[in-house]
Amino acid sequence: MSLILSARASGNAVLDRRLSAELLDSVKPLIRRIVGALLPIAGSLSPDDLAQVASMAMLRAVSKYDATRGRQSFGQVAYFRARAACEQYARLHGTDVHLSDGAHKRRTVRSLHSNEGNVVRVHRMDMPSHFSDGASADDSWVDELESALREMSCLEPDGYTPEAELLAAERRALVFDAVRRLAPEQRELVSRVFGLNRPAQSVRSVAEAWGAPKSRVDRMLARALDELRELVVCSGKR
């Protein structure tokens, strides 16, 4: 874990991806155990859905684990965090949770700017997309969708409150469900670029792996995000 944290701190993405992949491989027995235990309450979620949620929680646990606090091993902490994440997602998915009023419902698909007078703060990445070569006609939406995808890929809200956690969890649930409904190639591309159930890759590295021009993969990703937008909005209106 210390090697992963060092790789992240130094910006060594290649080493981070390799070590993260090795970590996920080492915790596969724990993930299978979680999936097996929760399948009875998973409803329409597949084992792969639960495994993906568990894997993301395992990777998040790397930066949260402190060996000097308590006597639990990383495996124990990661197991309980991953199981809790899967239980939460299964509940949200099974009960079709959404906020009742329109203003709150919109928060499930949009990042909220921090408000110093409001304790509810949801993380937002105010930075250009790492895959975009230029501005789009709807940059604000792309930023918001990327924020939700990145939260699914191990980035968590800056300030924890139950309200913020609920809003963030609902948004992640909406986006994760939308990703599942993308066409296979689009789902694979989004998962690779945003690191869903795997270390994140740049568009350039995906293009090289697929033997395709980067410009073509950029366009594919833009179309996938546009499709995600429609799916998330439709889900939020249910």
UniProtKB/TrEMBL annotation:
One annotated GO molecular function: DNA binding
InterPro entries, per the entry: RNA_pol_sigma-70_dom, RNA_pol_sigma_r2, RNA_pol_sigma_r3/r4-like, WH-like_DNA-bd_sf
Domain of life of the organism encoding this protein: Bacteria
TM region(s), chain numbering: none
SUPFAM superfamilies, per the entry: Sigma2 domain of RNA polymerase sigma factors, Sigma3 and sigma4 domains of RNA polymerase sigma factors
Keyword Transcription regulation assigned: yes
Keywords: DNA-binding, Sigma factor, Transcription, Transcription regulation
Presence of the UniProt keyword Transcription regulation in the record: yes
Record-level GO BP terms: DNA-templated transcription initiation
Listed Gene3D superfamilies: 1.10.1740.10, Winged helix-like DNA-binding domain superfamily/Winged helix DNA-binding domain
UniProt xrefs under PANTHER family: RNA POLYMERASE SIGMA-E FACTOR (PTHR30385:SF8), SIGMA FACTOR F FLAGELLAR (PTHR30385)
NCBIfam families: sigma70-ECF
Protein name listed in UniProt: RNA polymerase subunit sigma-70
Originating species: Myxococcus xanthus
Lineage: Bacteria, Pseudomonadati, Myxococcota, Myxococcia, Myxococcales
